[in-house]
Amino acid sequence: MAAQSGSEVYAAERGGWALQEAFVSGQIPVAVYGLGKMGLPLAAVFAEVSGNVTGVDIDPDVVASIERGESTVSGEPGLAELVADLAADGSLSATADPEAAATDARVHVVIVPTLLDETNEPDLATLLAAVDGIAAGLSPGDLVVIESTVPPGTTRDVVTPRLAEQSGLDPSEFGVAFCPERTASGRALQDIRGAYPKVVGGVDAESERVAGLLYDELTSNEVLYAGDATTAECVKVFEGIYRDVNIALANELARVTDPLSVDVNRAIEVANTQPFCNIHEPGPGVGGHCIPLYPYFLTSQVETDLPLVETSRSVNDAMPSFVTSTLVGMLDDEGVDVTDATVLLLGVAYRGGVDETRKTPARPIAQQLDELGADVWATDPVVDVASVPDLPAHALSHDAVEYSGDEFDGVVLVTAHDEYHSLDYGSFADAVAVDTRDVLPDVPMSVYTLGSGIRQ
Question: pLDDT tens, 84-115?
C-alpha cells in the first residue's frame, strides 16, 4: 500500500486516537530494516497489526523467500505460518532497496545487530548503513524508531544528526525514538506481542508520544515512557549487564564447591527462597549476541571506572578455562593424558533449544582442548556443527552419540538441550564428564557438575 496524503506521524495535527486508527487501517506505511532472528518476527507483528509493512534486508535470498511467503528464521513457533499468511494477503512484502522502502514509508523501524570490533568497541557500521538508507528517502513528518541495542547516547548523538545531515531535513521536521526489543530466541512473537512492557524513549516529547501510541497498538502489555531516548537505551543495556554481573556472581560462588566441599547449586536454590535473593545459575560462560556485548556498550561511552562491570566480564570469560582444567584433572586422575584423550562436547549452541552459536562457550573450550593436544569432537541436536566457524572439533551427528560413547575418554556437557536429559549414556561408562549445566541424570561414569562437585 503506497503512502497516502496526511499519513505524517511526527508532529501531525491529530490526536492519539486518529493516529492509531490511521496506523491499524494501513494508512501509515511501515518499513522494518533488518529481517534477521528478531527483525522478521517484528516485521510480521507490525504487518499483522497494520497490514502495510515492507521488510528491508541486504540479503536478496532473504527478500526472495519472504516474497514467496517463506520464513527465513527457524525455531520461532508460529512465525512460518504468520509470514505465509501476511505475504499472501499483501500485508508483508520485502525488498533489498532501502531507499525505495524509505521513500514509501512513514514509519521506519531499525532492528539490525550491533557487534563489537576486535578491540571490543561497539561497531555501528550496520546501523549507520540502515540510517543512511532511511535518510535517502526520509520525508517531513516521518518517525524513525531504533530497536537495535546500542550504546547509550547513540540515538540522540549519532542517529538523529546523521539523519538530518544525510536527508537535508532539519531535525525538527522528523521524529526519532528508541524502543528496545525485549525478545528472546524461541519466543519472539510472544514477547513482541506483549510478554513484557514496551519501553519507548524519544529524542523529543513528540517522538516519544507518537512511538508510544503506535506500540500501544502492537502490544497487549503496557507502554512505559522512559522520558528520553538515552534513558531507554540504558534500560536495555542495564538489563543485560545485570544478568552478566549476576551470572558472574554465581560462577564465582561455584568455584568454592571444592574448597568447602559444598553443593553450591543447592545453596543457591535454597537462598533464592528468600524474596530479596535472586542468584542465577553458574555455567561455562556467557554466550549469545546480547549479554557478552552490552557491558562494552556502557564502558565505551564513559571514562568513569566501572570495576564491577569489567570484573564480571572477566569472571565469565574465564569459565571455559575452569571447565577445561577440571576435565584435564579428571582425565589425569584416571591415568589419561590430555594429549592422548578423545573428548566429546555435548552442545555447541550458547543456549538450550536455540540454534545460535555466537559467543558460545563451546568455542573456547574446544580451542583450549585442541591446543592441549586432545582430539575434540562436538555434537548438537539443533546446530550444524560442521558449519560453526572457528570450532576446532570434528562433527558428530546427534543420532550417533549414544552409539559412540566408548570412543571417548572425556565428555563436556556445554548446552542444556532437552535431548541430553534422556540420552542413553550407557556406552560412556569408561569416560569422565564435566556437566556445566546440571543436566546429566544418574549416569555410569564419573561426573563433575559445575557448582555441585564430583559424583561417581
Answer: 999 999 999 999 999 999 999 999 999 999 99
Q: How far apart are CA 131 and CA 399, in angstroms?
A: 45
Q: Which of 176, 195, 227 is the last residue of a domain?
A: 227
Residue 175: is it exposed, middle or buried by C-beta count within 10 angstroms (0-12/13-18/19+)? buried
Q: What strands lie across the sheet with 375-379, from one edge to the other? A: 394-395, 375-379, 342-346, 410-413, 432-435, 446-449, 453-455
* Residue among 37, 28, 23 at smallest CA distance from 111: 37
Same domain, 215 and 251: no
Domain, as residue range, for 187: 16-227
Instruction: Tally the domains of the chain.
Output: 3
User: Residue type at 129?
Assistant: A
Residues 223 and 246 placed together within one structural domain of the fold: no
Grid cell of 266 as nine digits: 543447592
Residues 6+ apart with CB under 8 A from 40: 55, 66, 71, 72, 73, 79, 83
pLDDT tens column, 158-197: 999 999 999 999 999 999 999 999 999 899 999 999 999 9
Across 46-52, average pLDDT = 98
Q: Are residues 171 and 182 in the same domain?
A: yes
Query: Do 49 and 185 belong to one domain?
Result: yes
Is 114 within the bounds of a domain? yes
Q: What is the pLDDT of residues 190-247, one digit of tens each?
A: 999 999 999 999 999 999 999 999 999 999 999 999 999 999 999 999 999 999 999 9
Tell me the DSSP string of 365-385.
HHHHHHHTT-EEEEE-SSS-G
Its pTM stands at 0.93
How far apart CA 451 and CA 284 sit, in angstroms, is: 11
Listed residues 198, 227, 256: the one ending a domain? 227
